[in-house]
Amino acid sequence: MSWDVTIAVLLAAAVHAGWNALIKRGSDPLFETTLIHAWVALPALFAIALLPLPGPTAAACLAASTAVHCVYYHALAAAYRNGDLSFAYPIMRGSAPMFTALLAAALLHERPGALGWLGVAAVCAGVLAIGLARARDVDRDARRRSLGWALLTAATIVAYTLIDSTGARAAPTPWSYVAWLAALEGPVMFAFVLARHGRPLLDYARQRGVAPMGAGVASMLGYGVALWAMTRAPVALVAALRETSVLFALLIARAMLGERVGATRWAGAASILAGVLALRLG
Predict the structure, then answer these.
(1) Which of 59, 74, 195, 217 is the most exposed place for a label (fewest CB within 10 A)?
(2) Rounded Cα gap, residues 164 and 239, in angstroms
(3) Top-confidence residue, 142 or 32
């Protein structure tokens, strides 16, 4: 994996952790998630006018990914409603890369070398260590609920990663794919949540105004960088490297949300850094 791809994915990981922290800080995680991705549809429409149209394969991936992302955002919001950012986020992000790597090997015929597999394993182990270190401090019932939603979120991460990497590679440019994805999934998500919750969503939207748009644009750009990287490097390696966002989430959780960080979490962080080095060399 080249240095430009590595640095780009690390920056995208920082952005990803940032908008997840904004969801956690919102008074209603589901509504906040919905507005973030509904507002970003406006700049996405402007981007679409400047970019080439996706082809048939990319269009099919866009339809499938939009459905999967709607499930993902609901599961994500439910996980944050029942647990801390520093518990739920590492679980959902840490369990996904290994399954992504295995499915990418089977479906996309991308098989990392020994160092690549070692890097994926080290990142996953470090991410899970950070999350599981928080488990004992969470109420048992809340932990069970948050864990279930976090694992469902992880399953959707694996699904949309494989779908979107295929779509981005089939599209004329990955930026065309991500712009269309943002333009489609935001309105679909908003319509679905509005049908279920009605006026409370509209009241929340009036309260928040256009503020969520900034997080939405950051989310779109960060994901666009990740998809661009998947056109330049194996999906499994990029997916694992993207989970360094947990390191940034750990720092955000400590500095902004007042969550505790102990020795086990810092050991997990060291494992992630070792995994990054292995991915870079692999």
Answers:
(1) 195
(2) 12
(3) 32
User: Of 66, 135, 136, which is closest to residue 94 (Cα–Cα)?
Assistant: 135
CA distance 23 to 30: 8
Q: What is the pLDDT of residue 57?
A: 95
Half-sphere exposure of 173 (CA within 13 A, CB side): 11
CB neighbour list of residue 282: distance below 8 Å, 6 or more residues apart: 1, 112, 113, 114, 115, 116, 117, 118, 119, 237
Model pTM score? 0.81
pLDDT band at 26 (very low <50, low <70, confident <90, very high): low
Q: Which amino acid is at 206?
A: R
Q: What is the mean pLDDT of residues 100-110?
A: 84
H or E segment and range at residue 104: none
